């Protein structure tokens, strides 16, 4: 089985390289300017000062290995962006985003839990409606949330709990996006389920949406939401609802403030019909001293009222890896809060280095100091990203 998976991966890589070579050939139907081939490699080291006996950073998302080097992700992207107002060939597009590395196991695991994942794979067409109606079908990054899977696009190395515990990473379905003008845009998608997997165990579909507003050059507002009528662990009448928003303020050319908050509820999450509720708030301060040096600060609070999503309510001991534990009877809720301080240095434009200190706190003893359950942990991380 593993040999078959490896063959599939090699086939995909070979295909990407062949298409990439064709894209730079003047004999191809489309010119080399129509295609983009890019990606990045991301590695890290994380030191947990609690020295947990299991060598796991509890309640973390991708930075789960304590006192250890880790190959986070190597990503390859091949895409052709659809364009409005041109020939039919210009209106059609696609994106293939392939991930390798330990993070890929938690971003979807297209190859059955191996460290390989198609994060995005979709076809695109810009319909000739008004300014151009952007239609996409396949697997895509979610509309929900500020942080994303790709570390270079986030302010910090470690991910927030809002992103890791309470939001989907990707979604699979069909999406329509339309920019009414430079100030207003809207995206609506009909998708399989909240987890973003390629297949769907539910008979009904979910709906995700995002309204993008840019009233001025220095202010951006995003209002997002998700709803499904059949998402619960118990009963077909279960429903999941999530709503939130992002405020992005460009204070100066070198300083940015971002605020995000959301509220979510899942009906019939537990066998006794009990609902799950989770909500949170995060604030970011992003400042660049120069083109090379910058700091990124994040403060966050996340409430998992039933313990269904952080999976550690009531001191239950899990592995600390995202999606690795399921809710059981008797789970208690927990409230988590953290502060993250990141120093970023880019010696050259295509090389990003980060040093990050993070303090985590909980109202439950869900972390470990050696073998002892405690209510806090502190980590120091080094991250290196090479962009190509």
Question: What would your notes on this structure say?
Answer:
- By secondary structure, the protein is mainly β.
- It has helices spanning 2-23, 88-91, 161-166, and strands at 36-48, 68-80, 92-100, 116-127, 133-141, 170-179, 184-191, 206-216, 219-228, 240-252, 255-266, 276-288, 293-304, 334-348, 351-362, 367-369, 372-374, 376-387.
- The strands form two sheets. It has a 16-stranded antiparallel β-barrel with strand order 1-2-3-4-5-6-7-8-9-10-11-12-13-14-15-18.
- β10 (240-252) and β11 form a beta hairpin.
- The longest helix is centred in the N-terminal third of the chain and has 22 residues, at 2-23.
Distance between the termini: 32 Å
List the secondary-structure elements in sequence, H or E.
HEEHEEEHEEEEEEEEEEEEE
**CATH class type of the largest domain:** Mainly Beta
CATH architecture of the largest domain: Beta Barrel
Q: What's the number of helices?
A: 3
- Class based on secondary structure composition and strand pairing: mainly beta
Output the CATH homologous superfamily of the largest domain.
Answer: Porin
Q: Over all CA atoms, what is the radius of gyration?
A: 21 Å
Q: Tell me, rounded to a whole number, the average pLDDT.
A: 84
CATH fold-type name of the largest domain: Porin
State the share of residues found in helices, binned by percent.
under 10%
Largest sheet data: 16 strands, antiparallel, barrel
Shape: globular
Count of structural domains:
2
- Number of extended strands: 18
Spatial sequence of strands, sheet with the most strands? 1-2-3-4-5-6-7-8-9-10-11-12-13-14-15-18
Percent of residues in beta strands: over 45%
| Low-confidence region ranges | 14-29, 312-329
């Amino acid at each position: 089985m593993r040999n078959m998976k490896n063959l599939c991966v090699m086939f995909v890589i070979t295909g990407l390289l062949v298409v990439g070579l064709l894209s730079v050939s003047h004999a191809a139907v489309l010119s080399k300017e129509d295609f983009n081939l890019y990606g990045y490699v991301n590695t890290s080291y994380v030191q947990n000062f609690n020295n947990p006996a299991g060598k796991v950073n509890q309640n973390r998302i991708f930075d789960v290995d304590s006192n250890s080097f880790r190959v986070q992700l190597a990503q390859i992207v091949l895409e052709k962006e659809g364009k409005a107002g041109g020939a039919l060939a210009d209106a059609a597009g696609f994106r293939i985003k392939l991930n390798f590395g330990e993070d890929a196991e938690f971003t979807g695991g297209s190859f059955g839990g191996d460290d390989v994942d198609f994060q995005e794979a979709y076809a695109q067409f810009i319909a000739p409606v008004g300014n151009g109606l952007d239609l996409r079908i396949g697997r895509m990054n979610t509309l929900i949330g500020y942080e994303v899977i790709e570390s270079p696009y986030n302010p910090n190395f470690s991910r927030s709990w809002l992103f890791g515990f309470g939001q989907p990473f990707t979604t699979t379905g069909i999406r329509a996006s339309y920019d009414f003008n430079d100030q207003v845009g809207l995206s609506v998608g009909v998708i399989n389920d909240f987890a973003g997997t390629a297949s769907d165990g539910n008979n009904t579909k979910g709906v995700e949406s995002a309204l993008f507003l840019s009233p001025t050059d220095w202010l951006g507002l995003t209002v997002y939401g998700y709803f499904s009528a059949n998402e619960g662990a118990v009963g077909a009448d279960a429903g999941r609802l999530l709503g939130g928003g992002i405020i992005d303020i460009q204070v100066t050319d070198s300083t940015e403030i971002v605020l995000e908050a959301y509220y979510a509820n899942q009906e019939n999450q537990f066998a006794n019909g009990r609902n799950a509720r989770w909500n949170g708030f995060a604030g970011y301060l992003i400042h660049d001293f120069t083109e090379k040096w910058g700091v990124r600060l994040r403060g966050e609070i996340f409430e998992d009222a039933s313990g269904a999503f952080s999976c550690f309510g009531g001191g239950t001991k899990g592995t600390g890896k995202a999606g690795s534990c399921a809710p059981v009877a008797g789970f208690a809720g927990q409230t988590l809060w953290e502060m993250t301080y990141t120093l970023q240095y880019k010696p050259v434009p295509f090389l990003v280095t980060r040093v990050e200190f993070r303090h985590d706190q909980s109202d439950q003893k869900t972390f470990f100091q050696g073998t002892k359950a405690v209510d806090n942990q502190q980590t120091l991380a080094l991250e290196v990203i090479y962009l190509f």
